[in-house]
Amino acid sequence: MEKDRKRVVILGGGVAGSVVARSLQFHARVTLVDSKEYFEIPWANLRSMVEPSFAERTLINHRDYLTNADIVTSEAVNITETEVLTADGRRIGYDYLVIATGRADSVPKTRSERLNQFNEENRKIKSARSILIIGGGPTGVELAGEIAVDFPDKKVILVHKGSRLLEFIGAKAGHKALKWLKSKNVVVKLDQRVNLNGFTDGQKIYRTSIGETIEADCHFLCMGKPLSTAWLKETVLENDLDSQGRIKVDEKLRVNGRGNIFAIGDITNIPEIKQGFLAQQQAEVVVNNLKVIIHGARECKMETYKPHSAIAIVSLGRKEAVAQLPFWTITGRIPGFIKSGDLFVGRTRRQMGLSYDIVKA
């Protein structure tokens, strides 16, 4: 009977939380708590800025893949030993809790509003003759590549505070990305910051930390976003965070010392590069482990999550990419064939039980 089923509450409807919710919806009473009504394929959103119609496939309403679960469009603001409290005043009881809140990011509540946002960003790019990108991590590099390939007539300037691009992976990958960007006439300035204090829309002159001036019609801020865990400091998990605000988990992805609370994705202290496909793999481990517990199997049937070595693919436009693999780093069409064509959108939609066809807002 429905009332006898275990209650699983998932906080966060990103790449990890959505997988858990979809996979468990027929095994438990599932409630997904997310501040927005849709799931977004995050590694595809830069393509959506240069080609807004691409977002029709990458923004998926939670209800499209959750046919047997409750969806609460709000934010969790507190956790007790038995309940989750939300910003809209709800108290949601749980038997098992999965925290997958990812990084703090301000995005619209509805899918249609997010589609409009991509259209606005596209208009901003199209109307500009010169574009400044601030940040040389994977987001900044991929955006610069997308614009340089789709709009080769525009001047693109990328400013990065570090001494090399893509500091989250090896130096060789950063060097190859720099070489590729320069081949597309992207101007790259390293070891500099852009001062945005007091900056107002409409200004076209930017100043850097070493006194340089840059003229650009618009800018895009591509900096890392903070973890969405600060709110946990006022909850029963206040002692389960490390000094960087990450949740300490065991090899089964349970919060250390707790048998019924799991954490996955960027917010954990797992020693590996934080990437979407790894968050999905963690989600699959948690799904298995919760099924084991829910169905009364022995704990020895639970899976262990093993951290992965550094593997990353950063798109460079529509056909090329730079890839860091365990023993070598390559750039060009081969890694581009793996990722850059449709950015794994088709595969992700199939994982969510959906067709690749465009879904209208």
Automatic annotation (TrEMBL):
Keywords: FAD, Flavoprotein, Oxidoreductase
Molecular function per GO: electron-transferring-flavoprotein dehydrogenase activity; flavin adenine dinucleotide binding
Cross-referenced Pfam families: Pyr_redox_2 (PF07992)
One Gene Ontology CC term in the entry: cytoplasm
Start and end residues of each FAD/NAD(P)-binding domain: 7-275
InterPro entries in the cross-refs: FAD/NAD-bd_sf, FAD/NAD-binding_dom
Function: Putative FAD-dependent oxidoreductase.
Similarity-based family: Belongs to the FAD-dependent oxidoreductase family.
Protein name: FAD/NAD(P)-binding domain-containing protein
